[in-house]
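Q: Structure for this?
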Amino acid sequence: MSLRMPEPDAAVIARRGEIAAALRAIVPGEGVIDDPAMLRPYESDGLTAYRQPPMLVVLPETKDQVSAVLRWCHGQGVKVVPRGSGTSLSGGALPLADAVLLGMAKFNQVLAVDYEDRVAVVQPGVTNLAVTRAVEDAGFYYAPDPSSQIACSIGGNVAENSGGVHCLKYGLTTNNVLGVELVMMDGEIVRLGGRALDPAGLDLLGIVVGSEGLLGVVTEVTVRILVKPETARALLIGFASVESAGQCVADVIAAGIIPAGMEMMDRPAIHAAEAFVNVGYPLDVEALLIVELDGPAAECDHLIDEVERIARADGAVSCRISRDEAERLAFWAGRKAAFPAVGRISPDYYCMDGTIPRRRLPEVLQRMEQLSAQHGLGVANVFHAGDGNLHPLILYDANVPGDLERAEAFGADILRLCVEVGGVLTGEHGVGVEKRDLMPAMFSEVDLAHQQRLKCAFDPGLLLNPGKVFPTLHRCAELGRMHVHAGQVAFPELPRF
Amino acid sequence: MPMLAPTTSAELADAIAGAAADGTRLEIRGGGSKAGVGTGGRQTAVLDMRGFAGIIDYDPAELVLTVGAGTPLAEVETLVAAHGQMLAFEPFDHGPLFGRPVGAATIGGIVAAGVAGSRRPVMGGVRDHLLRFEGVSGRGEPFMAGAKVVKNVTGYDLPKLMCGSWGRLAALTQVTLKVLPAPRETTSCLVRGLDPRQACAVMARAMGSQAEPSAAIHIPGRARGASLTVLRLQGFGPSVAARAALLERLLGEHVVETPDAALAEAIWGDVRTLAPMNDGRPLWRLSIAAGAAPAVIAALEPLGAQWQMDWAGSLIWLCFDGGGELVRRTAAGAGGHAMLVRDDRGVYAGMPTFQPQAAVLAALETRVRRAFDPAGVFETGRFSDLAPHLDLAHAD
């Protein structure tokens, strides 16, 4: 493990029995887990390279219990790591040896659905897909669809600002959440947002979404639900070069079309996927594009023709149009199975998540090939082409000594490359522990200090999910200091008061 | 009133640090279109941001536009329109409400006020389209957050916090916005003579259907006679035609007309400028749960309130000079809040511009404001919202 987490506090660990007893007084019965064997399932999240059993697990069932647990831990200076379903790919729910792991799985109820105002109120442990299941009979759905949607929880989606393949048209979690109930580290409960579209004051909801469990624990979420489109159709388009596929994406958007989904795969990813699911992906192309249009049938028909025309003009070597729902799903089957497919051609893979300006794609893929040779590891690429979100899958073997470290070094180089061309470290997976130490590649000390002071407004003791997102833990008092150099005016010529 | 007009981030940082040091309060101003919002006491200097004007970077195919915060809205909209694109949140320009010309507002002011137009319920607000900003906080430090790409979750989403912060956290120098293709066709479907309850039911049914209106508004019966409920459909030609036909079937019990060009322009012009809401009385803006709109109207109309609805009922503009506390209680009861937008005659002198929040939330908000502005440089009192215990940190 190349990553350093905050040094565990031995004095806190020594109080483990006392802490368990105090938490049992709040959450009785089996809601507190301290048996080492039963702590095992909680030792990692979706970033399985990192493992650390928590000191204790507490599984509250009511917001009052959440509030009481946090208030007690706050009073005692005990750290807390919140967890939804544990599917984070960036280690956002990685436990700490001296922290209580607060699991929200028991908050699993859909509380209310209002079809007239098109909102659903759910508890945070409800899975992403369960929200859609709860409203689909009435013709509605919940738009964000991260690939873990069968397992990941809405609370986790709020923490990570999760995306999915339909983000370009329908937005990320933050664009689809209207309000939350939040318990802060001191146990105080606030409601942010709600049924009105604008907040009365600052948009604190906007910063809580995507705050990776550092600002508070969400106990209720109000989401926007959308009417299911009348139809959806897809094109499967092969190109002889990544450049022409990229040009096609740009030309589709220039034609005023925002597809529901626009995915690109490179040659290694195409071959791995086709070998896995056999859906007839062309194997003689360098890049494959899946473009999905949704909406009224008249609109889909019109736009399918437009996209096909654009693709041909950009030199597509093959173009299939889905004739029915089964064929549309077949087009997607390979893309959706890309990760496990790559898992078949390599013992392990490490999934990266940078975003780049789309026009830089050919250059980025080329430099990624050089990095691949340099690190001695293969890479396959799937790409949310519409919004520039790149998922390189680095192939390695965890049983080969040094391979994981090489994969991590390769991954870090890829993310630095993304930032260098004007992109970002993470498009939808979050910073967590994984990209924490890369944050200075994107932000200055001053930028990061402005973010960390926000943390101080919510959790001045830095007890909630410490060691995530920020490379350096600054104490709030230190961050709050303001240096004013009286008499040293940099621009004496500027008109003053 | 003293005026500062920096043109670089370094000058701006110096001006703000200087103000922090000598206790001067700064009111950040762009085009001045919203200068009439908030009439509280102002022992302030004005920070004129128009020096930060200009197009910095625009790549239509990437859907990303970066401009200086002081760039006039009109210039930004003209630029994107020339490339067949738009700011999908439909910026709302306060200028006409205060007798100023349309389009003089700056893009930084639009972002700072977080004001979106009729497309808000469907396409999101300013918050959903601000990708990145640069600015100088009340600490006198230049900083940035976000990125010039449409999908990014790196670090806290500070761009959201800047939208609607009304110049109380930072002076923005540069903003990066997501732009989208402009619709090729627009048509309106009009139903006359509905009462508020019927209108809200019609708007909810349309918004919850595959007709996908891009806007739904209701204007009560006035000089033009019967009330107007209008649904706007936008997109590619074949799609708009299909959805208009669907809408007509869906609202079968009502007569659905397509207004002629002149009427459509008059209606949507009134929605954009709120010209009918200029009756000399204070203007309120109620952001509420859409389903509660009829109850709000029922509570306030009998007391003489004049109103119109946008956002399918979720936004109510109200001309009213009766009990301010009643307006706020009514808005809270409707799941929302009421902002006092215009009160040039001081009917509600001393009343906070924004609806006060519950104590725990108000305290949290104060801590967030202090995080960005420990010395209270941007606490001008303009919005009559100074916390009783301001608790300003002492600079050392």
